[in-house]
Amino acid sequence: MKVWLRRIQSLRIEEIIFLVFLIPSIMITISANWYFYTSIGEDSKKIEGGIWRIIITLVLIVIFYWFLWFRPDKRIFKFIREVAPFIFAIAIYTNLHDTIHFVNPHDVHFQLNAIDEWMFGVSPTVWAEQFYRPWITDWLSFAYMNYFWITVILVLYMYYKNEDRQFRTVMLTMMLCYYSGYLLYIIFPAAPPRLALADLYSINIFKGTSVISNSARAVVNISAASARGAFPSLHCTITFLTLGMAWRFHKGLFWLFLPIGISLVIATVYLRHHYIIDIYAGLFLCMLVWYLTPKIDGWWRNFQVKRGIITKSPAVLQTGEKA
Between the CA atoms of 105, 96, 279 and 245, what dihedral angle is there, to the nearest 10 degrees? Predict the structure, then answer.
């Protein structure tokens, strides 16, 4: 027992957080699948697919922790350890889907829209219909899909440049943004405007668009945002984080990413994926986690040092600290 306790204590903070989220995620998915299995005439392909995602994730976890505890000297594993928490976080994200409703059935999307109407006097996603053009939809769909890739480009560039502390600063902050967002999804379940406000729209914004927009729609439909994952907008949260970290560490990449980032934020409303308040919440979440990440990582490392698990080593970069 002491051996396993020490192994757990030797994990990084992001690996601990993943395990904390994994167990309830599995329980929720199994519960949701059992509901559809025992309910005649009801089914959900997305939720049913979650079982396979869990099995695949568990297999990958076993392999990952076997290497971590028994073969950590393998060179390739050092890179895998850096990126695995991100892959595991995405696995949990894609497994949320409609299962959020099995945890908290009290939707707040109409309240979110009411806040938008109070701020602007109109539902922004309905107001945006006047700007519909097929080419605009294609461009904004392209931008919306690329929030993932601009982050990947940034962290891979840092890894290539051997900027270890900068790399992990971005990765850990991103992981904490994701998991904080997942928790908020459950506390404030909200369907996106395109689902909750469907009766208010008079235009099919995807009419006449290209394969780019259709591909973007397919990607959205496999994420939690297609069910009860509107508040906050994690697309915006991660985009704000990527732009902020690019400005902090590589300003050349910041200017390269900026057009995509601005377009993505606009796309969340134009494509009816989010309410304006979701964007504000995403910005606040990004700033909060940016501030807390070095403190959380430093606290965990100090705990490991006191236990004699690791020697004193640099934590992630503090806000304002020079690389």
Answer: 150
Distance CA(190)–CA(188), nearest Å, equals: 6
pLDDT of residue 12: 84
Q: Is 132 exposed, middle or buried (0-12, 13-18, 19+ CB in 10 A)?
A: middle
- The Cα-based distances of 49 to 56, 94, 97, 104, 205 in angstroms read 11, 10, 10, 21, 29
Could you read off the pLDDT of 7-19 as tens digits, one per residue?
A: 777 788 888 888 8
Alpha helices, H only, 108-233: 109-120, 124-127, 134-145, 147-160, 164-187, 193-196, 211-220
pLDDT in tens, 306-323: 877 777 777 777 776 666
pLDDT score recorded for residue 87: 81
C-alpha count within 13 angstroms, C-beta hemisphere, residue 322: 0
- Is residue 54 within 8 A of residue 29, CB to CB? The reply is yes
Contacts of 314 (CB under 8 A, 6+ apart): 165
The model's pLDDT over 110-159, given as tens digits with 9 standing for 90+, comes to 999 999 999 999 999 999 998 998 888 889 988 888 877 898 899 999 98
- Find tokens 């002491």 and name the residue: 2
21 closest CA partner among 210, 184, 182, 254 = 182
pTM for this prediction:
0.87
Q: 180-203: string of b/e by CB count within 10 Å (b at 16+)?
A: bbbebbbebbbbbbbbbbeeeeee
HSE-CB of 307 using CA atoms within 13 angstroms? 16
Judge whether residue 225 has pLDDT over 50: no
